[in-house]
């Protein structure tokens, strides 16, 4: 029976168990990676046995963070007495098919997340939709457990918070978020290192990908919806199939008058990933949920089978219904 835990309860459950495999979602973003590394470093500092697995691996953007090179893209659990921690996953399937197949019989599952659409799929669930990020939640758990936050943990969690709050610009930034950020700075976060690695060390392929996306920019007749399109062929021609920059979609909703921005990306022939951003009152998580996705009110996503044009027509018609 799934149990909805308080901060104290999840902290005590994690303290009582051992032998953890920590996993995140497919196409991991900064919050996923930062949370994963922060929790791993925190648990191992307490003498816990832990390993990290991400089906799609860690994007190059985050390779400067501590312990990142110990993250595996696949693994086989040692023995049967292991526990599985899902981070930043609104549902079980977000972890990826091969991960779920490999880790099919854990002793306990833990679900730590901040998505309002989370379906409480684990044995122990700690979900806080008011938190800015899963990284913020991980900080609170480690703080409760008495972990001594060092610079490696601090930089991982700060990065996660930074990326999910738009550098503390989005409305999910609370006063408690900034207090935690301040504490992490005191623990040794090197802002120059973060700035250079996150924003001033772009791969040339990422800039070419952005160029392709901007060339495809289109608007609805009323100007309230903007969208960009990246075909599989275009991405393949750049050699950027493994790149999933988080910032490209932001160019859609930074335009005056646009309320909803969308990025359509064909991740394989016949499969399209859709990203949504909102800066008005439109709840894009509700839109994404209609096509099997999820996320937050201002930022959400989904994947849908079909040709790029078919998916665009379907999704744009759906968005037009709520943006008039």
Automatic annotation (TrEMBL):
Which Gene3D superfamilies does the record associate with it?
3.10.310.30, inorganic pyrophosphatase (n-terminal core) (3.90.1640.10)
The organism's place on the tree of life at top rank: Bacteria
Q: Which residues form the DDH domain?
A: 21-161
Can you give the residue ranges of the DHHA1 domain? 248-324
Q: Which GO terms describe its molecular function?
A: nucleic acid binding
Q: Kindly provide the name given to this protein in its UniProt entry.
A: Phosphoesterase RecJ domain-containing protein
Query: Mind telling me which InterPro entries this protein's record contains?
Result: DDH_dom (IPR001667), DHH_sf (IPR038763), DHHA1_dom (IPR003156), Oligoribo/pAp-PDE_c-di-AMP_PDE (IPR051319)
């Amino acid at each position: 029976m799934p149990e909805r835990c308080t901060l104290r309860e999840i902290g005590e459950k994690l303290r009582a168990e051992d032998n953890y495999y920590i996993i995140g979602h497919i196409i991991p973003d900064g919050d996923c990676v930062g949370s994963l590394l922060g929790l791993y470093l925190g648990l191992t500092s307490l003498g816990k046995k832990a390993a990290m697995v991400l089906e799609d691996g860690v994007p190059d953007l985050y390779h400067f963070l501590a312990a990142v090179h110990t993250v595996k893209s696949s693994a086989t659990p040692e023995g049967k007495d292991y526990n599985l921690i899902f981070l930043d996953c609104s549902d079980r399937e977000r972890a990826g098919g091969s991960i779920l197949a490999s880790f099919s019989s854990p002793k306990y599952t833990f679900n730590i997340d901040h998505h309002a659409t989370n379906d409480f799929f684990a044995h122990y669930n700690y979900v806080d939709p008011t938190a800015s990020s899963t990284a913020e939640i991980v900080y609170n758990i480690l703080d409760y457990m008495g972990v001594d936050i060092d610079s490696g943990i601090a930089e991982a969690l700060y990065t996660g918070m930074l990326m999910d709050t738009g550098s503390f610009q989005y409305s999910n930034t609370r006063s408690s978020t900034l207090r935690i950020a301040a504490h992490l700075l005191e623990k040794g976060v090197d802002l120059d290192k973060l700035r250079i690695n996150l924003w001033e060390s772009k791969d040339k392929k990422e800039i070419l990908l952005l160029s392709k996306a901007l060339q495809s920019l289109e608007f609805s007749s009323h100007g309230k919806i903007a969208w960009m399109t990246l075909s599989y062929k275009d991405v393949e021609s750049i050699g950027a199939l493994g790149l999933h920059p988080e910032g490209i979609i932001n160019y859609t909703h930074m335009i005056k008058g646009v309320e909803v921005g969308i990025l359509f990306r064909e991740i394989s022939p016949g499969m399209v990933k859709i990203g949504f951003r909102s800066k008005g009152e439109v709840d894009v998580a509700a839109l994404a949920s209609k096509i099997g996705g999820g996320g937050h009110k201002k930022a959400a996503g989904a994947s849908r089978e079909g040709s790029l044009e078919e998916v665009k027509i379907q999704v744009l018609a759906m968005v037009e219904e709520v943006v008039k």
